[in-house]
Amino acid sequence: MALIEAIQEALRAKGLDGWLFFDHHRRDPLAYRVLQFQPAQMVTRRWYYLVPAEGEPRKLVHKIEPDVLDGLTGSTTCYSGWRDQRVHLPALLAGCKRVAMQYSPDCAIPYVSNVDAGTVELVRGCGVEVVTSANLIQIFEAVWSEAQYASHKKAGTLVDAIRRSAFVRVSEALRSGTRVTEYEIQQFICDSFKSNGLTYDHGPIVAVNGNASNPHYDPDRNHSSEIRAGDLLLIDLWAKLDQPRAVYYDITWTGYCGQNPPTEMLSVFSAVTGARDAAVACVKSAVAAGAPLAGFQVDDACRGFLRERGLDDHFFHRTGHSIGEEVHGNGANMDNYETHDERLVIPGTCFSVEPGVYLPAFGIRSEVNVYRGPDSAEVTGEIQTELLRLL
Q1: Does 66 share its domain with 188?
Q2: Where are the alpha helices (DSSP H) in 128-257?
């Protein structure tokens, strides 16, 4: 199905009259990605592109850049001054009562909130209701192809092996009395990614003790702790195949640099993995029953498990994020904490489930990836069930 036809089918299914794309100075990367085009020139003036639920798309562009949307189908109207724009915009929107834009009420979904408030006001001034494109974005940004699913599984096999090797490397250093640091293990992982044909955007996270209570801790050459006997070690690593359209695999595991972890550490690990499993069970049961499931509901299941154990105050981030060509993708997040994500978990999408409990002395997070298929949901890689013993 052609792209425009697919967009129109989605608009009709959601009862919308159109999807209004807008950009100025390339501020909305989602517009270009969904429409699958890049202008062959500068974008210094405002352009509008309306895909109606029925009929031919329409363009409104500035006379200085009349060819900016030439890569897209549809009729073209040019404007010059701001008064001229205000004359032509209502005509562009003629026949539309409700249109989607990259807008999110109260900025509830920051990932799609790319259109400025003034432009939304301008469109509303034409007598048109503006609704969020968040669920439309999911369809065209977050749904994987079969090839992308296969790339995720292959990346997962490689990343899981590298994760195992990293923990083994720590164990060998501890047993031999060789000094080893967070940064050294991080660089070992990075080198392993490259030698296995994987790419990544930053990281990974290698953190001991209190450093593991910083979810975005990033050791470097000058700021890195030594890994010693008796330490809690957390490794969070993510990568994808170094090829076009590949998607990420993203996991977190933890280990204890000894044989007998403290009781509190074991208790927290049990609570965190229990919360993870509660979230996964929530997804699997909803999908099996054919019931609609929103991202916030998965977060509720996970966070509720920790709340019952008095640990929810130490879990201060969302349960999970969408995974795609970017490690933080543009599908539904498992979130009722940082945001209230009402987007549905739709077939063909993948997301992380990664609860954590962060105490002053140590932090534990357990992360898996969940793929939501047409009739079932699966954890796509290995699942940690016991705190690793590294000595």
Answers
A1: no
A2: 134-137, 146-176, 182-195
